[in-house]
Amino acid sequence: MAQSLKFSSIGHGTPIVLLHGWGLNSGVFEPLAVKLGERFKVISIDLPGYGDNVDCLPAHYQLAELAELVYQSVAEPAVYLGWSLGGLVATQIARTARQTDVLGLVHVATSPYFVEAHDWPGIKPELLATFHQQLAKDIGKTLSGFLKIQAMGSSHIKEDIRQIQQLVMAKPLPNRKALEQGLHILASADTRADLAQITMPFLRMYGKMDSLVPKKVINLVDSLATNSDLVVFDKASHAPFISNFQEFVEHLNAWLSDNTGHY
């Protein structure tokens, strides 16, 4: 196992761990962390190979190893909030960590299975293949294209892209291996069967206009995670904590207060 991951924390109270998605870093959560930090202890952590942890890579860059490294680095009971790829990591932690160490699970614009299949809506395999090909040529250009796809459907797409770029560009570009292996995880990880086993408080938050996690996923996951709570932002895309910031914070704060005993 690689060394512990670096992370930052602000605020006091119940710990909330924020896990970002593919290609970005914890900087994307900065406005959210500051706001949540008024009521909770917010832990922002870059996944292995990203941001402040760009040089910290496990020997095997797989979902189980990422989850274990995050969990061991946090080393205290916490709510885990995972956005996109971060949702897979958060789910893995919720399923494998000591149950008393996971106070709650929050999914943000994530899916238990990201790739489109005959019985499941998702990302077209050829799009992931295109990202693989582009990574070999130009990491920056690949990530820029990915940001545009994430914001598609938002009512203020240009502003969303600009804000995300400003937040994440304050940190180093991701490690190429982390990006390539992260695409493999997105293409292969299937946590659908795990969702029925989640016993802690579980909140799912989606953008109705999300092109990476289509709205058809919502009803399918409803039947897999019958004990979860649900929030759908009608005019949001893949980053509702950016495009619908105030509404997102209000819903999340209320759920955290109701489900963690923090008032």
Structure, described:
This protein is of the alpha/beta class. The protein has helices spanning 30-36, 63-74, 85-96, 125-135, 139-151, 157-168, 176-188, 216-224, 240-243, 245-260, and strands at residues 7-10, 15-19, 41-45, 78-83, 102-108, 202-207, 229-233. Helix 3 links the parallel strand 4 and strand 5 (102-108). The radius of gyration is 17 Å and the shape is globular.
Write the layout of secondary structure elements.
Elements: E1 7-10, E2 15-19, H1 30-36, E3 41-45, H2 63-74, E4 78-83, H3 85-96, E5 102-108, H4 125-135, H5 139-151, H6 157-168, H7 176-188, E6 202-207, H8 216-224, E7 229-233, H9 240-243, H10 245-260
Parallel strand pairs: 2-3, 2-4, 4-5, 5-6, 6-7
Antiparallel strand pairs: 1-3
Helix pairs in contact: 2-3, 4-7, 5-6
In short:
The protein is an alpha/beta fold and 263 residues long. It has helices at 30-36, 63-74, 85-96, 125-135, 139-151, 157-168, 176-188, 216-224, 240-243, 245-260; strands at residues 7-10, 15-19, 41-45, 78-83, 102-108, 202-207, 229-233.
